[in-house]
Amino acid sequence: MRVAFTGGSGKAGRHAVPYLQAQGHEVFNLDLVPLEGCETLQVDLTDSGSVFNALTSLTNLNQLDGEGVQRFDAVVHFAAIPRILIKPDNETFATNMLSTYNVMEAAVKLGIPKVIFASSETTYGVCFAQGDLKPDYLPVDEEHPTVPHDSYAMSKVAGEVCGRSFQARSGIDIYGLRINNVIEPHEYKAMFPAFMEDPSLRRRNIFAYIDARDLGHMVDCCLKTDGLGYEVFNVANPDLSVGISNAEVRARFYDGVPVRRDMGERETFYDISKAQRLLGFSPKHSWRDVLDPTV
C-alpha cells in the first residue's frame, strides 16, 4: 500500500516505518525532521493548506519520469506533541487537535480510503491524573470511560471525536489506536530493572507497555483489515511491565477495584483482546526476552 505516515521520525514512528517498509508498503514520511531510509516531506500539520498539498504531492524524484502524483491508500497519523510538560498546555492541546483535524479532513476530502491515528492510554485518565486515580474496573478495555485530566489526553479524546465524525460523514475506515507507553528495544536494559525493584513506577501506565516494533505490527494489521468503519483499539503487549504477578499487582495497587474476568498470571491490565480478535494483532516482543524478572 502507498502510505502517508505523519510523525515517522518520532519515537514510535522510527520503528513503525521500517517495519511497514519491510512488509512491502511504500511509506512517505510527513514530519518536521527527516527520517533516514524514508522519503520525508517537512510539513507543518497545523496548516491545513500544507496538509492538503502534502497529501497530493510527488513522493520522490523518480515520479517525474513515471506516473506522476498517485493517490495514497492510507494515512497513518502519529505526529503530536507526545505528552504534557513539553509545551504549554494550551499549545499541546491546540497543536495536537488541529493537526489531527487537518489530516482527517484532507484524507476524507481527497478520497483516501483509510485513516489510522494515534490516540493514547492517557484517554482513560489514569496516566496524567493529579494523585492516584485507579481504573473503574480491570482489565481496562475500550468501553472504559475516557475522562482525562490533562491537555494531552484531552487532545486525544477530541481526536477520537473527530475520527468518529469524519467516518460517519464519509464511510471510510478510521481506526484509533489507544497506544500504551512505547518502549524501544534498548530501553529494556536501561529502564526495566527499576520497574522490577519498584513496581509502583508503572502505576500510571496501568502496568502495561508496547514494544515499538509490535506497534509497527499493529499498524500493519490495521492496513490489512478493511470494512470496520470507526473503531478504537487498545495497543499493548500481552504481559505486565513488572516482575510480580497479576494477582500481586491487584493486591498491592488495585484493592477494591472490580475485576470483570479471570486473568492470567502475567496478563496485562490493558485489555488488547479486541485488537487480537478483529485485527489479528499478535505482539511478538517482551522485556522478558532481555531481562530475567527473578533477578
From TrEMBL:
InterPro entries linked to this entry: Epimerase_deHydtase (IPR001509), Lipid_A_modif_metabolic_enz (IPR050177), NAD(P)-bd_dom_sf (IPR036291)
Residue ranges of every copy of the NAD-dependent epimerase/dehydratase domain listed in the record: 6-220
Protein name as catalogued: Nucleoside-diphosphate-sugar epimerase
Organism: Poseidonocella pacifica
